[in-house]
Automatic annotation (TrEMBL):
Residues 110-190 form the Polymerase/histidinol phosphatase N-terminal domain. GO terms for cellular component: cytosol. It holds the Pfam family PHP. This is PHP domain-containing protein. GO terms for molecular function: phosphoric ester hydrolase activity; zinc ion binding.
């Protein structure tokens, strides 16, 4: 069910509803409208096929909670073995999100930065994992926020411990071909320390460290702060390093001021990947800084930073930028097989 695969006719009703939600999300349609399709999928998932078919023939699907006229139409058409009209029209938009970067995109095996509804994402962990698997990824790192980011419902050590149990349960169901990896997007505190205990960080497999507060700090203390975070032996990826916002409904934000050469030299020395954040409103780092990190010899990770399943495809944008900057795919850590990635991420 990848956006790149030719569409196979006649998906079942649950698959059709999920695929519609995914494609709407990719087009950045309104969350409330998208959720209607996911809710409908959840409603019919536990029902026997015969009941769904009988209700669709009798026109009584809308008696079920969570199913309205448009979701009922999709279910009815799928039950007849047709590709629902809604899906046919959305599939026309399912091509790559960016013009360039296709060769690099084909080499990506995973994504190191994603959020679930445990912090500020919109979907359950398993929905994120299933969609990443359907996109052809071998792995996805779940990186919900750390405690201090209260606005994003950051996870305490206790909640993160519970989440790790859920990650293990999801992996047990997925049967080994795809791995959901244990991770965090940990806040870089004002002094450069990380917003989670060492005991907890040690239980994770990949850690993205990001600055989310005091973005307007003076260049000298900001540089010290970022280098301190990069030198922390738990840090694997420096997330959206400038914090800028270039478009979108969250408004605009200038990039943080810091000595980028010093920070990227620290990344190269400590084998920390510079993230190419694929979100269109971030485009972080700016092109000049991607080129600087390239020339210094850093490794990179091209991340979606997705907060919903349909956003997992945004890596298309990051691939376009990395390819334009001429970055060798072998220096992009998420082109690596999972074993190599995990060996790189474990610095102990
Ligand atoms: Zn972030
Ligand atoms: Zn994030």
């Amino acid at each position: 069910m990848s956006s790149r695969d030719p569409h196979t006719p006649g998906p079942g009703p649950v698959a059709a509803l999920r695929r519609i939600a995914f494609l709407m999300e990719r087009r950045r349609e309104e969350t409330r409208r998208i959720e209607a399709f996911r809710n409908a999928a959840r409603t019919i998932l536990p029902l026997p096929d015969e009941e769904v078919r009988a209700r669709s023939e009798a026109g009584t699907l809308t008696e079920l909670s969570g199913i309205g006229p448009s979701t009922a139409a999709v279910i009815t058409q799928a039950c007849r073995g047709e590709v629902p009209e809604r899906l046919v029209s959305l599939e026309k938009t399912s091509g790559p999100l960016a013009e360039g970067g296709r060769e690099l995109r084909a080499l990506l095996r995973g994504d190191l930065h994603s959020h679930s509804d445990w912090s500020d994402g919109g979907s359950p962990i398993e929905e994120m994992a299933m969609t990443a698997m359907e996109l052809g990824h071998d792995y996805l790192v779940l990186t919900d926020h750390s405690p201090r980011l209260r606005v994003a419902n950051g996870l305490s050590a206790e909640r993160l411990t519970r989440q790790l149990g859920v990650v293990e349960a999801v992996n047990a169901h997925l049967g080994g071909e795809f791995t959901l990896l244990k991770g965090i997007e940990v806040d870089v505190l004002d002094d450069g320390s990380l917003d989670q205990t060492d005991e907890m960080l040690a239980q994770l497999q990949v850690r993205v460290a990001s600055v989310h507060s005091k973005l307007r700090m003076d260049a000298a203390p900001m540089t010290r702060r970022m280098i301190e975070a990069v030198r922390n032996p738990f840090t694997n990826v420096l997330g959206h390093c400038t914090g800028r916002l270039v478009t979108g409904n969250r408004g605009l934000r200038p990039q943080s001021q810091f000595d980028a050469r010093a920070v990227f030299e620290a990344c190269a020395e400590h084998d920390v990947a510079v993230e190419i954040n694929s979100r269109p409103e971030r485009r972080d780092p700016p092109t000049g800084l991607i080129e600087l990190a390239r020339d210094i010899g850093c490794v990179f990770s091209i991340d979606s930073d997705s907060h919903a399943p349909g956003q997992l495809d945004m890596v298309d944008h990051g691939c376009e930028r990395a390819e334009a900057a001429g970055i060798d795919p072998d220096r992009i850590v998420n082109t690596w097989p999972v074993e190599r990635l995990l060996a790189w991420a474990d610095k102990r």
